[in-house]
Design a protein that fits this description.
single chain, 224 residues, alpha/beta, Rossmann fold, Arc Repressor Mutant, subunit A, five-stranded parallel β-sheet, four-stranded antiparallel β-sheet, 8 helices, 12 strands, 42% helix, 21% strand, elongated
């Protein structure tokens, strides 16, 4: 699960954002000591930082520069300040994106996913994990994790889930999956794929994920 550190002194906004991060499948943590944001960052080791600019003691630009001294973790600025100079400073200080308050939570989610995708390529096997809606597929160890549950996958289950998660939101035909599994689908009984899909679905259900893989009758499968 991706962990996101929220550096926001407005408790109401912090509560709303962290609550929605949980719904989106992320782990959110808020900074409480605004005199020592860097140590909180180092303790948390987050995958992404949401940084307000107007903060007590030191502003978000300062903390962004301190974080950049030790890490390249992506930083998204969230602020009510909207001057061109603020946006330029945010980018020049090492920010990866800039969202002006008030903002839609759906837009914030889209920005977070876009930055995570660019940084960690979680829809690509170039990284050790692929993440979608809170499910983490570990490329290196052939296992999946959802919340606190972890399940080992067979070789075929792993290959099926990998191709489906890489193309999440897209329909993947049965022939395409069989080519991935066995390189030449003509050597494979069509029922064999169905058996593997059903086994994979059962494993997903064990960790609380029902209907994670949908069937499009006569077309293939999709992870929405």
């Amino acid at each position: 699960m991706f962990e996101i550190l929220l550096v926001e002194d407005d408790k109401k906004i912090s509560k709303i954002i962290t609550s929605n991060l949980k719904k989106w499948g992320f782990q959110g943590r808020c900074v409480n000591d605004f005199e020592d944001v860097l140590n909180c960052f180092l303790d948390t080791e987050p995958h992404l930082v949401l940084m307000d600019i107007n903060l007590p003691y030191y502003d978000g630009f300062y903390w962004c520069s301190r974080i950049r001294e030790v890490s390249k973790v992506p930083i998204i600025f969230i602020t009510s300040r909207d001057s061109n100079m603020d946006i330029i400073m945010a980018m020049n200080m090492g920010g990866d994106d800039y969202i002006q308050k008030p903002f839609s939570l759906e837009v914030l989610m889209a920005r977070i996913k876009a930055v995570l995708r660019r940084t960690y390529s979680y829809n690509s096997t170039d990284t050790e994990i692929i993440e979608h809606n809170g499910l983490i597929l570990n490329i290196k160890n052939n296992n999946i994790r959802f919340k606190d549950e972890k399940v080992e996958l067979s070789k075929n289950e792993f290959k099926i889930l990998t191709v489906l998660m890489e193309k999440s939101g897209q329909l993947v035909s049965r022939d395409e999956i069989m080519e991935v599994l066995w390189e030449d689908e003509k050597f494979i009984d069509d029922n064999t794929l169905t058996v593997n899909i059903n086994r994979l679905r059962k494993r997903l259900m064990r960790i609380g994920l029902e209907d994670f893989i949908l069937t499009k009758r006569g077309q293939g499968y999709i992870i929405p």
